[in-house]
Amino acid sequence: MTLRDELTTFFRTHYPELPAEARAVMDRAGRDLAASGQAARARQVGDTAPGFRLPDATGATVALADLLSSGPVVLTFYRGAWCPFCHIALHALQEQHAAITERGARLVAVSPQIPDESLTLTEKHSLAFDVLSDVGSDTAREYGLAFDLPEDLAELYDSFGFDLRRVNGGHPRTLPLPATYVIDRDATIRWAFIATDYTARAEPSEILAALDALPSAS
Q1: What is the DSSP letter of 15?
Q2: What SS3 state is found at 135?
Q3: Half-sphere exposure of 158 (CA within 13 A, CB side)
Q4: Both ends of the chain: CA-CA distance in Å?
């Protein structure tokens, strides 16, 4: 089963269980975000990847420049440990982690949640790659991915018990679009997946194909 199939199955199984009022809020927010054109304004193939220095799950600082010094980077942005679609996607990436590293690349995941939340997620799924905290979403903003939830959707998430104010360090309404980049050693973005649909994620097989297509010098 592909990641896309797994995400679709989860959505079709659980989305109908939500109250009609909740689905209406989520559907309207999704349509508005898609119509905003933000995905097209985010960093694209050929752009220079903005640098960053972010804490990992243990508080150690990880810099993009340091990662690129040893090879290409697969950089994926996710919403947080509260998001079931993110759990599914990160698990799928973990299953392909060895294949990514065999290609000389480093996998890094970034979310707006605090390091303690990242540590819990890392331990729960035995993630072998760096999970970084972009509290305040400054890095996501540099990539053109950060957006603010509409008030009614933020309130709905509160009612679900997600507590974004706590897990995002006081920034409850700002999240990144789901996005994954393959960045070569000169910091050029060579492949990109960007979506406004919170249920969509980059297919691991496509990430591997993008790594295989990098120039040999990368």
Answers
A1: G
A2: coil
A3: 12
A4: 31
Could you tell me the CA-to-CA distances from 3 to 108, 125, 199 in Å, in that order? 18, 16, 11
Residue 2, helix vs strand vs coil: coil
Report pTM: 0.95
- What is the chain's percent helix, strand, coil content, to nearest 5? 45, 20, 40
Helical spans, DSSP H, in 96-179: 97-102, 115-125, 138-142, 151-159, 164-167
Cα distance between residue 105 and residue 60, in whole Å: 20
Those residues with Cβ within 8 angstroms of residue 38's Cβ, 6 or more apart along the chain or in another chain: 144, 145, 147, 177, 196
Taking the CB of residue 176, how many other CB atoms lie within 10 A of it?
A: 25
The two tokens of residue 37 are 């054109």
Domains and CATH numbers, the chain: 3-212 (3.40.30.10)
> What are 198-207's pLDDT values in tens digits?
999 999 999 9
**Tokens at 186, concatenated:** 């000169």
Give CA–CA dist 97/204, Å, rounded.
9
pLDDT higher than threshold 80 for residue 116: no
- What was the pLDDT predicted at 218? 46
